[in-house]
Amino acid sequence: MTTDTTVFVSGATGFIALHIVNDLLKAGYTVIGSGRSQEKNDGLLKKFNNNPKLSMEIVEDIAAPNAFDEVFKKHGKEIKIVLHTASPFHFETTNFEKDLLTPAVNGTQSILEAIKKYAADTVEKVIVTSSTAALVTPTDMNKEDLVITEESWNKDTWDSCQANAVAAYCGSKKFAEKTAWEFLKENKSSVKFTLSTINPGFVFGPQMFADSLKHGINTSSGIVSELIHSKVGGEFYNYCGPFIDVRDVSKAHLVAIEKPECTGQRLVLSEGLFCCQEIVDILNEEFPQLKGKIATGEPATGPSFLEKNSCKFDNSKTKKLLGFQFYNLKDCIVDTAAQMSEVQNEA
Ligand code: NDP
């Protein structure tokens, strides 16, 4: 790919996508992003100092039919790469189909349909931001002997994933990813693009712009924030699973654009397993201002907890394909928490 290439990023205002937009601009790409409103789009353009290589389009709701048609009608002949990151990631609903599953699936279907209609000869690569949630059901996550790889699939059905919001979110990532692979299979002769997916575990790491933290927080960063605001002697839910730093997630999207070996691959992003006990240990050890004020749990028991309570991930194939070192948990959490503390002190 030459760097005068134009890349479209859906959901550009999101936690992960802002890092991607920044990395793309730094690498010299021209970027067209989508956000849900003029206000959000103007805010994003301002954050990037109205960089002339960045423009924004409104896609108000990816669940709507033909949501991406206008964008591709207008820009289809310029866009060579599509990064589809937009998807609802929250657990604040009881209407799982309407708020999680349908937007995830329809959004994926409609962006691919729009490419087929208006950019079949121009778009060369599509990279869908999927998740490790597409690889394993939440109920299997605690099976200590289960090993998840790039070939694994979440076993929930459309109905069974609607047991609760977490399962429904995981289902939404599975069905959205399946939609993309199936679309390509069925439309191979009428589109030019290849497909790769990026399947990150829990994503932590600093926000691209610290002041985003003043306007709410994305779901995965909320886990760290809750631990920073925990009470001494208090309890916390020991979430566990694979983790990855947001800066590595962004970098992986760029490598997937640039390395031909990533074509057709599911790239599973995990530096290793984490649990909240390990995050609490890091916060207590590395931040003197938090020590004695936040929960401690049972220090140093993280690794044994994970051994018994989490399935394992083997993403050696992805690590080899990407060929770069991921941030470790300590550096990732220290950078995340330092930014959160700084913003809090400014308030
Ligand atoms: P964010 O919530 O920060 O970003 C999601 C983006 O999608 C936002 O721009 C959001 O817009 C947009 N979006 C959501 N629903 C709609 C909709 N119905 N119509 C239009 N736009 C919509 O989350 P992340 O950055 O964390 O997630 C980005 C992607 O990465 C998602 O696909 C997520 O599933 C995936 N992922 C995230 C992980 C994590 O731990 N963070 C782990 C694995 C995968 P707005 O904010 O305006 O609503």
TrEMBL record:
GO terms for molecular function: oxidoreductase activity, acting on the CH-OH group of donors, NAD or NADP as acceptor. It comes from the Eukaryota. Residues 7-261 form the NAD-dependent epimerase/dehydratase domain. InterPro entries: Epimerase_deHydtase, NAD(P)-bd_dom_sf, NAD(P)_dehydrat-like. The keyword Oxidoreductase applies. Keywords: Oxidoreductase. Belongs to the NAD(P)-dependent epimerase/dehydratase family. Dihydroflavonol-4-reductase subfamily. This is Carbonyl reductase (NADPH-dependent) ari1. It comes from Saccharomyces pastorianus. The lineage of its organism: Eukaryota, Fungi, Dikarya, Ascomycota, Saccharomycotina. The gene is ARI1_1.
